[in-house]
């Protein structure tokens, strides 16, 4: 009986030693969302933030604002800063521009609400280039979390094609170009053709003209072929001109002519004029 008891005790000890231990429950870590490489814009050489950037510190932005250096100059612009859900950030839609002959440096100054931590924002910069084409640049970024030492997967900011608006609300200059002076005026009937054949015809406007088209025509609309031809850039400020070219017909005495004018200011507003005049009789 004693041997049987010892045998059973030994089996119990062996059984305890071979029992499979219970494994501890280990939770799987949350999936890590990889950050996309921030996306630069072809028109921007450098900027305070880049589209798709995350973990942006809002403190220096609230203190100094943003700057964006453009690779080329532009005529006019409009800037908006808003949360990604569309809520406008007050006081951040005023921008200053340092202009040069080739590039523009745009500043967005903080004058109102501050940027928050752990928030997605977007900057919408709408510019008119030298050809008066509206270009909308959308830069989305996310500020970093405020709590230090807390690590978490940052959401990926997806690229989205911007919606190009009509552009009317992006123009700071609401005034159309106005004709204020010229070598001839509409309805004039005693114009000396000799002087105009020698120096050409000039017109002045109330503001700088970006591009223009001007054509000297006969009464029935046939062009005399004076220069310039077509739509051209203007480098004379508020003045435009048309001049005779070798081989082109000159103005004759006692003849009716008309001048068709199209002008575009630096805010991309346009005006058209038709000047009808008659030269004086041959003395």
Give an overview in words.
The protein is mostly beta strands and 283 residues long. The chain has 2 domains: 44-170, Immunoglobulin-like, CATH 2.60.40; 179-278, Immunoglobulin-like (Sandwich), CATH 2.60.40.1220. Helix content is 11%, strand content 33%. It is built from 3 helices and 15 strands. A 4-stranded antiparallel beta sheet has the order 1-3-6-5, with no helix packed on it. Strands 2-8-7-4 form a 4-stranded mixed beta sheet, with no helix packed on it. A 4-stranded antiparallel beta sheet has the order 12-11-14-15, with no helix packed on it. The longest helix is centred in the first third of the chain and has 17 residues, at 2-18. The radius of gyration is 36 Å and the shape is rod-shaped. The protein starts with a helix and ends in a 5-residue tail after the last strand. The model is unreliable at 6-35 and 152-172 (pLDDT under 50).
